[in-house]
Amino acid sequence: MQNQLSDKDLLHLCQTGNELGYGQLYHRYAKKIFNTIFRVLSNTEESEDVLQETFIQFFSNQEKWEQIISVEAWLRRVGINKAISLVRKRQYYFSPVEELEIHDEGEEQLLEKEWRECRLIDLEQAINRLGEIPKMVVNLYLFEDMSHDEVGNLLGMSAVAVRTQYHRAKKKIYEELKERYNYAG
Fold this sequence. Notes:
Layout: H1 7-15, H2 19-41, H3 44-60, H4 71-89, H5 105-117, H6 120-128, H7 132-143, H8 148-155, H9 159-180
């Protein structure tokens, strides 16, 4: 029965002080939100801390619950924002991108096809070897399904800069995997 309760039911339990609501909401979303945060930080301990801060903020702001349409979306957004803030505190700075690289559609399709054929673990390792900013752009755009505009807003970059960072990162990953698998051409 507990797993059948809706988010609204669980929020109501929380508002009445019932520990079941807190526990069920945490267990329902903690793993997903942790994975999202980890994609940004690539550090287990920091990701766990940010996850905890995310849930503390959520449970501390009961007055805002009426405005929440999706608990998962709210937690994800707060977790991403907190992770990005932590990256900024590490003194990583975003450099402006002055020029946009133009790719022809044939190259884009080839890169996408080659990329999909790579083993997932190799892809994950290649992404983790990117710099902090390109890694965040790739993870937020690909795995969190955010638009270039949304990623730009979170990172304080223009959508054009995000697209450029994404295409450069994608090309770097492609080149690394191409070399690893000795692809010709």
